[in-house]
Amino acid sequence: xxxxxxxxxxxxxxxxxxxxxxxxxxxxxxxxxxxxxxxxxxxxxxxxxxxxxxxxxxxxxxxxxxxxxxxxxxxxxxxxxxxxxxxxxxxxxxxxxxxxxxxxxxxxxxxxxxxxxxxxxxxxxxxxxxxxxx
Length: 134
Fold this sequence. Notes:
The chain has helices spanning 7-23, 51-66, 70-76, 120-132; strands at residues 29-34, 39-44, 99-103, 109-116.
């Protein structure tokens, strides 16, 4: 049996991400996907950008598809990089910060979080705060 994120963990991740977004005084779209990159939870904070809905979902999926932070994929996908143009695969990926794999206590990846709605630094900080709730 493969490991997967449960609902209680998902709720804790989303709550921690919302708290961090509020601390940063920003409004975020927050997505959690399960081990199969399927939508597990989505929250759009009041006033968060509509355009960031799709970005948050794609950041979460990207982080799970490749089991690494989306910012790392971004650094590898620059012109001349090993993954140049990867963002055009899988129906569209997001290769800038804000997507983070979620690991259980044994270090097994059980899903991912994607966050969008502010600077990429804030997006990554909110996603990391959500991931740290595990």
